[in-house]
Amino acid sequence: MFKLLRRVLVLAVFLFAVYKVYHIHQDVKQVMTYQPMVREILNERDTPANEELVLAMIYTETKGKEGDVMQSSESASGTTNTINDNVTSIRQGIQTLTDNLYLAQEKGVDVWTAVQAYNFGPAYIDFIAQNGKENTLALAKRYSRETVAPILGNITGKTYTYINPISIFHGAELYENGGNYYYSRQVRFNLYIMKFFNFF
Fold first, then answer.
1. So which residues are the signal peptide here (predicted)?
2. Which position among 41, 67, 108, 119 has the lowest Cβ density within 10 Å, counted as fewest Cβ atoms?
3. Residue 5 burial (CB < 10 Å; 0-12/13-18/19+)?
4. What domains can be seen in the chain, in order of their start residue?
C-alpha cells in the first residue's frame, strides 16, 4: 500500500513538472512574438538597453498576455492601466529603462539597480548610489519597507505572501504597497528561462 501511494505521488509530481515546463514554454513562445517589435523600437533610439533584457522584462511583467505588456502605464502617466496597446507599452517601457540605465551609469551603480528602478522608480538609483553602488536584495527590501511602502500608505510594515522561484528562498513575502523588491532578480532569472526555452 505504501509503495503504491509513493508511486502515485511520484507520478503526480512528475505530471505537475511536465505541465509547468509546457506552460513555461508556451509563455516564452508568447513573449517571443514581441521580439520584432522590441527590436524595431530599440533601433529607433540610442539606448544601452538590449533585446534580451527587454524580453525578459516582458516575461516578468505579463508573460506578454496583457495590452500593457511592460506595465509601463505608471511611468507614462503616474497611474496604472492607462496604456492598452503593446507598441505604446513597449516604447514607454524601453524609454523608462533607457533613462534608468543612463542615470545608473551617471551615478556609477550597477545595471541591476537600473532594472530594479523600473519597479521602484528612479529615486532608487540615488539610494543605491549612496549605499554601496550595488543593488542587493537587502537594500531593495529596505527601500521597499522604508521608502516605497510608507509613501503609498503602509507605515506599519504590513506584508503579504508572495511566492515565486526567487522569493521562496527569502521569506516569500512582500510589503503591501512596497513594490517588488525581488524584481531585478526575477528578471535575471527569467533571462535564463528565456534563453533555455528558446532553444526548443
1. none
2. 108
3. exposed
4. 2-133+183-197 (1.10.530.10)
86-107 and 51-61 helices, crossing angle to 10°? 120
Instruction: Tell me the average pLDDT of the chain.
Output: 92
Place of cell 539606448: 47
- What beta strand segments (E) does 50-189 contain? 159-161, 173-175
Residue 169 has pLDDT above 80, yes or no: yes
Q: What's residue 5's pLDDT?
A: 77
C-alpha cell at 13: 509530481
Give the pLDDT band (50/70/90) at residue 23. Answer: confident
For every residue of the chain, DSSP letters joined together read -HHHHHHHHHHHHHHHHHHHHHHHHHHHHHHHTTHHHHHHHHHTS--S--HHHHHHHHHHHTTT-SSSTT--HHHHHSSSS---SHHHHHHHHHHHHHHHHHHHHHHT--HHHHHHHHHH-THHHHHHHTTTSS--HHHHHHHIIIIIHHHTT--S--EEE--STTGGGTTSEEETTS--TTHHHHHHHHHHHHHHHTT-
Cβ burial of 183 (10 Å; 0-12, 13-18, 19+) is buried
